[in-house]
Structure to design on (121 residues):
């Protein structure tokens, strides 16, 4: 009897890291997860969004900010954290469906202060 090797191919929809990120955030009608560009969570980032309503908060140790009872509609998310470039993104909340919004921040480039030379007068 001949054995034929079989390859099992698993297909996923979307980004598998998104599902993992959602699992890290507490259940809510809106989950916002803030990370750096490598995917490390950013604690204490200030998040706010405006649109059908206005809300704001700060991320926890997992980089999550969660909100309940968010009205359906279009929103503009604004995220800030020290040493990172501010981030903005539009998103839509659909009535009756939880929403997940990832936000990956880039490190701010620090420009060294110009050297000051003492003048000899």
């Amino acid at each position: 009897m001949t054995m034929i090797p079989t390859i099992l191919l698993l297909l996923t929809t979307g980004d598998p890291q998104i599902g993992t990120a959602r699992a890290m955030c507490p259940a809510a009608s809106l989950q916002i997860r803030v990370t750096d560009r490598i995917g490390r969570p950013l604690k204490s980032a200030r998040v706010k969004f405006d649109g059908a309503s206005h809300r704001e908060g700060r991320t926890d140790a997992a980089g999550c900010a969660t909100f309940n009872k968010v009205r359906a509609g279009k929103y503009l998310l604004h995220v800030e954290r020290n040493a990172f470039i501010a981030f903005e993104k539009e998103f839509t909340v659909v009535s009756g469906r939880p929403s997940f919004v990832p936000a990956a921040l880039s490190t701010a480039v620090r420009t060294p202060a110009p050297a000051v030379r003492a003048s000899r007068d």
